Amino acid sequence: MKNKVLLLAFVSAFYACSDNDSTAPAATPELRLVTSSNTSGKVSYTDLLANTPNPISFTIGSLDTDGVYYDSARDEILVASRSQNKLEIYGGVQNAVSTNATSLSLALASASEFTNAREVAVAGDKIVVTQDQSPSNANTNKLLVYQRSGSSLSLRNAYTVNFKTWGIAMEGTTLYAVADLTGDLLVFENFFNLPSGSIMPTKRVTIAGLVRTHGIAYAKSDDRMVLTDVGAAASDSDGGLIVINNFSSVINATPNGGTIALTNQVRVYGPLSTLGNPVDVAYDAVSQRIYVAERANMGGRLLTFALPTTTADTAPAAARLEPGISSVYVHRK
Q: I want to staple 156 with a disulfide (CB 3.0 to 4.6 A). Which of 53, 147, 238, 260 is the partner?
């Protein structure tokens, strides 16, 4: 009798758990894209899963920003301000969307500890920002790491590097960076464990055929690296996109100081692409869409490309005007 009671209790508990599991609400999928601008004093936000995914522009407190990130959990847009020389965080994005607001309020900012920012990358509670050399910073290229703790942003580490900075991407504890004015890609392993000061990359390689790299995006889920080539800064027609499939295998097989050959690249160049100065790039592995911040054409445009499978001159699948566009970020959940 005692065994039967225990069995009934077990069966009841099993079905109770099963019912709870089956009725648990599924997470709402998200696919959101944000951009920043060097000239407009605005950021843009687009819900790409909306029935009509129209971009919404918000005025912020900095005229010139370079580097943008969207935090879904906190509902915030982070930018690197070149006007204020600070990291700035603007909150309440969804409320601003629902109320048709035209501006976002500053929620948090760092101290002014860099100038001439070019990109940001986020890993948990750490934010990396690149400082490109200029007279305002004694021509010093830096990677700076900020720690977010509650309502504060504090400088955790400052690294001096011997290359001109621009785009960066974090994957776990590995930082990928591009060397402006070159076709080189740099890898910093165990990046957050490095002590402040002058640092050197774990590996530096050259991307064959790439004139001047700027934008970088990596997706671990399909092991794909995407880079942009701005070519000559004065030209609005010589830019390109480079995709490196099976990136982990390719980079591991390339020695320090070596070259990633054209045979390991899928390239988009030519007049149909309308790529002139593609200064930043974002990639969504699920939809296999590449989003490009094209700075030179028509005062700035956001271009969307289907993932190329062969090297060719390919037209973008979509394009929209985005005055002064300087960076782009895509978030999926």
A: 147
